[in-house]
Amino acid sequence: MSAVSIYYLSMTSPNQLVEKVEAKGLSVIEAEIDEYRLNKYLYQLVGEQWQWQDKQHQSDDAWKAYVESPALKTWVAYYRGTIAGYFELKSDGEGCTEIAYFGLAPAFIGRGYGGYLLSQAIKQAWAIEGTTRIEVNTCSLDHEAALKNYIARGFQLVREEVSGS
Predict the structure, then answer these.
(1) DSSP-assigned letter for residue 28
(2) Can you give the residue ranges of every domain in the chain?
(3) In this predicted structure, what is the pLDDT of residue 1?
(4) What is the pLDDT of residues 112-155, one digit of tens each?
(5) With contact defined as beta carbons under 8 Å apart, do 3 and 148 qualify?
(6) What is the Cα–Cα distance from 121 to 74, expressed in whole angstroms?
(7) 74: Cα separation from own chain's centroid
(8) What CA–CA distance (Å, rounded) separates 8 from 84?
(9) Which one of 3.40.630.30, 3.40.50.720, 3.40.50.10150, 2.60.120.10 gives the CATH number of domain 4-163?
(10) C-alpha closest to that of 66 among 99, 85, 88, 98
(11) What tens digit of pLDDT does each residue of 73-101 get?
């Protein structure tokens, strides 16, 4: 198994956001009704190519409990009626909101949508009452531009860990 670098990032003020405002036709809409099958589908659609595995074998009951948690909010990005990506925000109730999952569907990678979608995720995270810090992590298995996008939007690298070898 190859070593995987995990990058932990944080933002402590809304003023740190370097927003990308060009939507390029994307609509980002909150999924206001909890439907675990949607989140499960989005996780597979976006995460399969990046080897997301932490939720891959969870039961439907575990997915349901995860999605129906009042601490979790989901947004879906659409382009001309097609799912282009999504993000999930998870609040710990103590000031930290995590971008739990974030990404684009395979057909939409490389079209310049990532910066706008991440800007929307950050703005929505700051809009959650009580948020004083936003956290996100990425790893060397994710898209090569992922870490650059987080830093370009204003996140600061807090620490890096290497697992496996």
Answers:
(1) E
(2) 4-163
(3) 55
(4) 999 999 999 999 999 999 999 999 999 988 888 899 999 999 99
(5) no
(6) 10
(7) 9
(8) 25
(9) 3.40.630.30
(10) 88
(11) 999 999 999 999 999 999 999 999 999 99
**Residue that is written with structure tokens 């932990």 in the block:** 8
Tokens of 133: 């810090």
- In angstroms, rounded to a whole number, what is the distance separating the alpha carbons of residues 79 and 27? 7
User: pLDDT digit string (tens) for 37-48?
Assistant: 999 999 999 998
Give the DSSP letter of residue 100: E
- Among 8, 9, 13, smallest CA distance to 95 is for 13
Q: Has residue 62 got a pLDDT over 70?
A: yes
Residue closest to 156 by CA, chosen among 18, 21, 47, 22:
18
